[in-house]
Write a structure and sequence with these properties.
heterodimer; B: 113 residues; six-stranded mixed β-sheet; five-stranded antiparallel β-sheet; 11 strands
Amino acid sequence: DAGITQSPRHKVTETGTPVTLRCHQTENHRYMYWYRQDPGHGLRLIHYSYGVKDTDKGEVSDGYSVSRSKTEDFLLTLESATSSQTSVYFCAISEGTGPGGYTFGSGTRLTVV
Amino acid sequence: ILNVEQSPQSLHVQEGDSTNFTCSFPSSNFYALHWYRWETAKSPEALFVMTLNGDEKKKGRISATLNTKEGYSYLYIKGSQPEDSATYLCAFEDSNSGYALNFGKGTSLLVTP
């Protein structure tokens, strides 16, 4: 979607290695979110941010950390990747000024071997 | 974690059939309810955002209703077409957690000619 990009789009990594996924926005939205998508689970919230250096945990935060040092970038780090973290990761942004107004990125497919 | 339930889990209908799905969500502290259409490997596509009890929204052959007092929403598809095949997600917008979307597991719809 215009205004939000995720990188990389695909990544294969080995168990035990650290991995960082990047979400970049050009909309100047306050709120940013990381979700993971797995069969039978829909989309589950990992972490979210409500401003620069302001982050909080979501439903499935174990094994993940995030950082937001500037408005436009929200980084998701898998500290030591495991096979259970093989998934498709989606970033989303929201103005937070009223219901709705979410934009999702195109997703990052991560495979941990 | 807010519990959002969707039923049925999957549905297989013939072209031309009308169908409907259910989403149930916590009725306390309601803020907004979202419906998304989602195809594998693509970003979720927003269908509706509903905020008021009794809301009804329509987009072509797809419509949705909202009952915030009892905590449920229905999504209807009239005259299903093969291109309607997708997963339909509902999400509860949580104003207490950075306006994050709490998704149900989705209803997978397959429409065959």
